[in-house]
Design a protein that fits this description.
Order of helices and strands: HHHHHHHH
Number of strands: 0
Length: about 150
């Protein structure tokens, strides 16, 4: 919460109350770091969404194929050890979209294979993504209980 307040102060050019000009400079540098990080997160996540939108508009792929392609892309990036460096550079810009799910699966498999051997191929991905899977199933159940299903009109 404190970082958000500092960003708002920086954005509206409010000087800090204590510490004088030296603290103002350090707060502004901190604010610029946060704003730069948020910009990279936005550009990375927006770039992934843009690729998805282009695939929808320019190909005859179904949404399920596009979803699968993004998960597989995350798995491939994780298997090639490229996911973590990208994650360090753009933070949640790559972990929030579905590509992050693939990266989580591959990271879980790699760690489980190191720990458990061959069996880790089958258990690692599910164990690493268990919280996300459980959350998705829980909210899908809640929506199914609240919403009314109907057939799609052509």
């Amino acid at each position: 919460m404190g970082q958000i307040v500092e960003v708002v102060k920086c954005f509206f050019m409010f000087p800090p109350r204590r510490g004088g000009i030296h603290e103002a400079v350090s707060v502004n540098n901190c604010c610029m770091e946060i704003i730069t990080k948020l910009l990279w997160v936005f550009l990375a996540g927006g770039g992934i969404c843009m690729v998805g939108q282009l695939l929808i508009l320019r190909t005859n792929w179904t949404p399920s194929r596009i979803l699968t392609a993004f998960v597989v892309a995350g798995v491939v990036l994780g298997a090639l050890q490229l996911f973590e460096p990208i994650k360090k550079a753009v933070s949640s810009g790559i972990t929030v979209p579905i590509v992050g799910f693939g990266g989580t699966l591959s990271k879980g498999v790699i760690e489980a294979v190191k720990r458990d051997g061959f069996v880790g191929i089958f258990t690692g991905g599910v164990a690493a993504a268990a919280a996300g899977i459980a959350t998705a199933v829980t909210f899908a159940l809640l929506v199914a209980l609240v919403a009314r299903s109907r057939s799609k009109k052509s």
